[in-house]
Amino acid sequence: MTREVSKLNPANMITASRFLTLPPFFWAVKNGHAQVAAAALIICGLFDKLDGRFAKWFNCRSAFGELFDAITDGICYGFCLAVVIYYDWAPRLPATLVIVMGLINTGLRYVYAKRAGRSTNYKSYAMERVVAYTAFLIAFAIADYERVYFYWIFVGIMFVVMLHDGKRMVIDAPPAGAAA
Amino acid sequence: MSSEYNFIAGNPLPWVVTVSTGLLGAIWAAYDARNLLKHRTADMGDPLERDKRFGYIMGIVIGLIGVFGVIKYHFM
Questions:
Q1: Tens digit of pLDDT for each residue in A35-49?
Q2: N vs C: which end of chain B shows fewer Cβ within 10 Å?
Q3: CA–centroid distance for A109 within its chain
Q4: Considering the domain boundaries, does residue A58 fall inside one?
Q5: Which CATH number do you get for residue A59?
Q6: Interchain pair A139, B8: CB under 8 A
Q7: Is A82 at the interface with chain B, CB within 8 A?
Q8: Which residues span the domain enclosing A21?
Q9: Tens digits of per-residue pLDDT, A94-152?
Q10: How many domains does chain A have?
């Protein structure tokens, strides 16, 4: 028997609260306060881990929650990347390529959801790891830490993962238990 | 970067990044190597199993890239 889960549950609230870290992040980068920017990024990353725990503790896992979490990841990390690019804290070309590939991946996920015929998130073990790398990518920009090395390698990694996931999402048949 | 809003004096961020990237990268690579070993007998005809395997391989690669980046920053 499937349990109806309200969209206004603790896990989704934690996910939504991640958006609150974006204005401080923007302000900190704009004004050159690297430590404040790092703190906002760390809080955003911790809440990303926490929402999954809350979903378990409060037994409020849902397909919407997983999709909302993935969209929030994209918006938060995409916004932070755009900010560090704009203020020249990150190498422009590879960082812009990362954002473009992120947008393409979002489009592929949308196609997958349409093909699966329901609001479902595409579960990708590789992309989960890439998303974690993205958080670090912003940290490398803030700390001025081997930016060129990490950004260009990330472009290669994300391209390979996107090709792999893209094939699964657009060409292969969706698995029977696609809705999480 | 100096700022009146610094929580910690000096420039601790490169060290925070060194510790978090080096440590997490190494743990991550080891964790996914263990996962990969555990799944070595899994049915590769199953798309989900193939997906997991690919994810674990990418996890190992990403972890090692992190560790190498830390070494590059400090020693190269």
A1: 999 999 999 999 988
A2: C
A3: 13
A4: yes
A5: 1.20.120.1760
A6: no
A7: no
A8: 10-170
A9: 999 999 998 898 888 888 878 877 655 667 889 888 988 888 999 999 999 999 999 99
A10: 1
